[in-house]
Design goal:
- It contains 3 helices and 23 strands.
- It is mainly β.
- It has one domain: Beta-galactosidase, Chain A, domain 5 (Distorted Sandwich).
- The longest helix has 14 residues, at 349-362.
- The chain is globular and about 55 Å long.
């Protein structure tokens, strides 16, 4: 059983106000100076801040006494503009990509980078509270309606939940095709963790070049350092060189691998974690039956440090036409829907030890 509370835009002011409290779970509202609305969901261990009317972005995640999301130099405040590079969204904990187009547009593509969802303006917002199999939760949801004349019409409805006395969260994306015709689908969850010096990536996925092919293509908006090709040549032969976040190694502008051979548990989840030197871990679980493509991504420079344990997705990021030719673009049936669930956040030292043991078991180690 759950409770649902409608949240209107006029509820938000520049002063943070608590609107709900139950046990250690709390929801509060405020606006940035830019006017962008924010919902903070918090518990005894930390919080997430969500932009409920702008992309349903998780702007910041804070647990275990630290900010979890990617570090990026410069002033960061969202604005109601339609370019996530310009409004500081690059560096948030999560932004949704898609739903009709996704990835880096190639020369023969006419779509914007990562589609309409990153900067989508949502129609409504609801606070949800209740109990599920993971415990007492507090969440935020809302609806983005897309209706193009003589084209697709759909509703996207994401959910972000935190749990009592827990530093883990559940993320859900549901996309309903409202049309009487099939609708093409390209979706990706752009989850940006912060790489920690000397942390180790542990995964239920092989570290082989065949299972983790390096992405050779470098987008045109990047400047390539002189030694970049030498680095990527070594990584192409041995992806395991990225297993440990060695402090002196620079990944500029980025390196990326496709995760092509996930190993899942008996319930269908792949397990990925960044285990920190103190024994805690950032982690991610998702089901390849829902998100059958993924990319590992690392950027580590003086200006920004970001790590994707995976960008779970329904296609690769090479632009619509390339992915269409490869057979990766999905379809949602007329009046049908698509839904994916991800579990992420921080594991305690004890939880991380259990997760690592499970991963080793899944990998036969």
């Amino acid at each position: 059983m759950s409770m649902v509370f409608e949240i209107k835009r006029n509820f938000f002011t520049d002063k943070e106000d608590v609107i709900f409290k139950s046990g250690d779970l709390k929801a509060s509202l405020f606006t940035f100076k830019s006017g962008v609305e924010v919902v903070r969901l918090s518990n005894a261990l930390g919080y997430i801040t969500v932009l409920p009317f702008k992309g349903h972005t998780i702007w910041e995640a804070f647990f275990d006494g630290r900010i979890l999301n990617m570090h990026r130099e410069g002033k960061k405040e969202p604005k109601y503009i339609h370019d996530y590079f310009l409004d500081s969204s690059y560096g948030v904990y999560l932004f949704h990509c898609g739903a009709l187009r996704m990835g880096c547009p190639a020369e023969d593509d006419d779509h914007i980078m990562h589609g309409e969802l990153p900067c989508a303006v949502y129609d409504d917002c609801q606070l949800i509270a209740g109990t599920d199999e993971r415990g007492a939760y507090l969440g935020i949801t809302g609806t983005f309606s897309y209706n193009r004349g003589f084209g697709p019409t759909y509703e996207a409805r994401p959910i972000a939940k935190i749990y009592s006395q827990s530093s883990t969260m559940e993320l859900v994306m549901r996309i309903d095709n409202l049309s009487n015709y099939p609708m093409e689908l390209m979706y990706m969850a752009h989850i940006n963790y912060r790489p920690i010096d000397n942390a180790k990536i542990i995964q239920s996925h092989p570290w082989t070049p065949e299972a983790m092919p390096l992405r050779d293509y470098v987008p045109s908006h990047f400047e390539i350092p002189a030694d970049y090709r030498e680095l990527t040549a070594r990584l192409k032969k041995d992806p395991r060189l990225t297993e440990t976040m060695i402090p002196d190694i620079v990944y500029k502008p980025e390196v990326a691998f496709y995760l092509d051979s996930p190993v899942v548990d008996e319930d269908g989840w792949i397990h990925l974690m960044q285990k920190l030197p103190n024994g805690t871990a950032d982690f991610l679980r998702y089901k390849p039956t829902e998100l059958d493509h993924a990319m590992r991504w690392i950027t580590k420079t003086e200006d920004q440090q970001g790590l994707a344990l995976a960008f779970p997705s329904t296609a690769n990021v090479e632009g619509y036409n390339n992915e269409k030719k490869a057979g990766h673009v999905k379809e949602i049936a007329p009046k049908g829907f698509y839904q994916a669930t991800m579990i992420t956040g921080v594991l305690t030292k004890e939880e991380a030890e259990k997760e690592e043991a499970l991963i080793h078991q899944l990998m036969g180690e």
